[in-house]
Design goal:
By secondary structure, this protein is of the alpha+beta class. It has one domain. 31% of the residues lie in helices and 30% in strands. It contains 2 helices and 10 strands. The strands form 3 sheets. It has a 5-stranded antiparallel sheet with strand order 3-4-5-6-7, covered by helices on one side. A 3-stranded antiparallel sheet has the order 8-9-10, covered by helices on one side. Strands 1-2 form a two-stranded antiparallel sheet. A hairpin with a 3-residue loop joins strand 3 and strand 4. The protein is elongated. The N and C termini lie far apart (133 Å).
Length: 215
């Protein structure tokens, strides 16, 4: 009886092509998954860093704005006493404390605003009395946040419910300052800072007095 010889059967060209195609598909999926994971990890890390920066900025504003100095200056053009705190919907100047942990301390002229569309910058000058206005050209600056896509300020007077987008031409501090902020398209919760030395506005007192006299 003859022994039966089994000859090994090789792969055909079609089978090899199919196998290589499957390997390529699997590798493509793995590479795409790794790239996606890397991008997600980078976004999470960037968000964490931004979150830390925003918390630091909010902490600084809470500390400095809440303790804003109620000192007034006399405008040279009309001799009207006005507060050092003046602001619009996008920029704010005030007289406040610079935390010692930033390398300086004491009373400073401070100006906050967005430059070049996306950079939130703080300018500061040491307070040198009520007469000379601050020379912002000689001020030092500090970049607080980059990639700012929205920055809004609003102010509310004592005993008022409505927010206003401008605070000027008054000799008292606002009772509240509201800060709205978005960084790289991500909106952060609004910050509302109560100002400790706020007083009723004199023009409101005069209006109430006139109203009482008329009655």
């Amino acid at each position: 009886m003859r022994p039966i010889h089994r000859h090994g059967r090789g792969f055909t060209l079609i089978e090899v092509v199919i196998a290589l195609t499957l390997v390529a598909v699997i590798l493509t999926g793995l590479v795409s998954a790794l790239v996606s994971f890397g991008k997600t990890s980078t976004r999470v890390e960037e968000r964490a860093l931004t979150s830390d920066d925003v918390r630091l900025v909010y902490a600084f504003l809470e500390q400095s704005l809440s303790a804003a100095a109620p000192r007034v200056r006399v405008r040279p053009d009309d001799l009207v006493p006005v507060s050092w705190l003046e602001g619009s919907g996008t920029e704010l100047e005030w007289l406040g404390l610079m935390p010692a942990r930033h390398g300086v301390g004491g009373l400073y002229h401070l100006r906050l605003g967005v430059e070049r569309g996306r950079r939130l910058v703080l300018y500061y000058l040491p307070y040198a009395g009520d007469d000379p206005p601050p020379d912002w050209g000689a001020a030092e600056s500090h970049l607080l946040l980059d990639g700012v896509t929205a920055f809004d300020l609003a102010y509310r007077a004592l005993d008022e419910d409505e927010w206003r987008t401008e605070w000027s031409a008054t000799e008292v501090l606002p009772a509240r300052v509201k800060v709205g902020l978005a960084v790289r398209g991500q909106a952060w919760p609004e910050l509302i800072v109560p100002v400790l030395e706020a007083q009723p506005r004199p023009d409101l007192n005069r209006a109430e007095s006139r109203g009482g006299d008329n009655g």
